[in-house]
């Protein structure tokens, strides 16, 4: 009888652990600016909120600064969604448009703003937003003078905030999980870079070099560590019950 009750408890724990593998681990995430005001403070003193509904990511940029409604600069989100990727922007040379130049950090010979990404971050895609259009463009990153044609998507400009959506497969993500780093560049589309970011960013603004100290993460990887721990506990319980049953059969001749 005790063995039957314990088996039921183990079964319940097993079902809970199994369900952890099938519950979406993405929620609502808010990332705050680094406090820098070199470009007016709209990003450095603002925030970014991301959430997902299945395959679509919903984003809100809350603009900070004293006059957020006048923020005309470009916001770039570099996305790491798969193994590999670029560790900095030094191999991008596309200056065919303000959007492309912003992603590349390259305006012309002698006018380059290089961004070095944080350790364990390799950029695969870039999302660029500007209220000048207003539009956003999603680029798959490639070295050389020409980036692949971007996907253009309109977004909502509420004055003090921006709202936009993108599909996970637009940035190469197979599930609701990716890493990102952010930067702001001049409204002129010249790639002149400020130090405003949702991450730590050091260096010199303008056509110089900046270095990210960290990256942000949206969502949780497909098999989070907590799930592995739960499964390990479950496995330990099953092993304990199995061993206990064998001992009882050996000593008492019954289950």
What does the largest sheet look like? Answer: 6 strands, antiparallel
The multimeric state of the shown protein is: single chain
Could you tell me the radius of gyration in angstroms? 24 Å
Number of beta-strand segments: 16
Question: Average pLDDT across residues?
Answer: 82
The stretches of 5 or more residues where confidence is low (pLDDT under 50) are 8-25, 224-252
Helix share bin: 10-25%
Strand order of the largest sheet: 10-9-8-4-13-16
Q: What order do the helices and strands follow?
A: HEEEEHEEEEEEEEEEEEH
Annotation field: number of helices: 3
Instruction: Provide the number of structural domains.
Output: 2
Question: Based on helices, strands and strand pairing, what is the structural class?
Answer: alpha+beta
The coarse silhouette is: globular
Query: What is the terminal separation in angstroms?
Result: 9 Å
Query: Per DSSP, what share of the residues sits in E-state strands of 2 or more residues?
Result: 25-35%
How would you characterize the overall build of this protein?
This protein has 255 residues and is of the alpha+beta class. The chain has two domains: 2-21 and 224-252; 29-219, no CATH class. It contains three helices and 16 strands. The protein has a six-stranded antiparallel sheet with strand order 10-9-8-4-13-16, covered by helices on one side. A five-stranded antiparallel sheet has the order 1-2-3-12-11, with no helix packed on it. It has a three-stranded mixed sheet with strand order 7-15-14, with no helix packed on it. A hairpin with a 5-residue loop joins strand 14 and strand 15 (209-212). Helix 1 runs antiparallel to helix 3. The longest helix has 28 residues, at 225-252. Mean pLDDT is 82; it is low at 8-25 and 224-252.
């Amino acid at each position: 009888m005790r063995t039957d009750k314990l088996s039921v408890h183990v079964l319940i724990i097993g079902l809970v652990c199994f369900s952890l593998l099938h519950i979406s681990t993405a929620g609502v995430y808010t990332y705050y600016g680094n406090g820098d005001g070199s470009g007016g403070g709209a990003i450095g003193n603002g925030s970014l909120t991301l959430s997902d509904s299945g395959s679509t990511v919903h984003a809100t940029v809350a603009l900070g600064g004293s006059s957020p409604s006048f923020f005309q600069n470009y916001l770039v989100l570099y996305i790491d969604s798969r193994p590999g990727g670029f560790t900095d922007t030094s191999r991008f040379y596309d200056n065919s448009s303000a959007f492309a130049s912003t992603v590349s950090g390259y305006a012309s010979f002698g006018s380059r703003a290089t961004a070095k990404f944080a350790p364990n971050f390799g950029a695969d895609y870039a999302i660029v937003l500007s209220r000048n259009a207003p539009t956003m463009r999603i680029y798959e990153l490639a070295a050389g003078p020409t980036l692949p044609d971007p996907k253009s998507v309109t977004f909502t400009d509420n004055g003090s905030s921006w709202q936009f959506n993108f599909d996970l497969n637009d940035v190469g993500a197979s599930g609701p999980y990716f890493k990102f780093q952010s930067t702001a560049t001049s409204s002129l589309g010249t790639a002149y870079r400020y130090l405003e970011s949702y991450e730590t960013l050091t260096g010199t603004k303008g056509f110089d070099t900046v270095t990210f100290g960290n990256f942000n993460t949206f969502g949780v990887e497909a098999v989070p560590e907590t799930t592995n721990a739960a499964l390990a506990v479950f496995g330990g319980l099953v092993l304990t019950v199995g061993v206990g049953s064998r001992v009882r059969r050996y000593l008492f001749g019954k289950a």
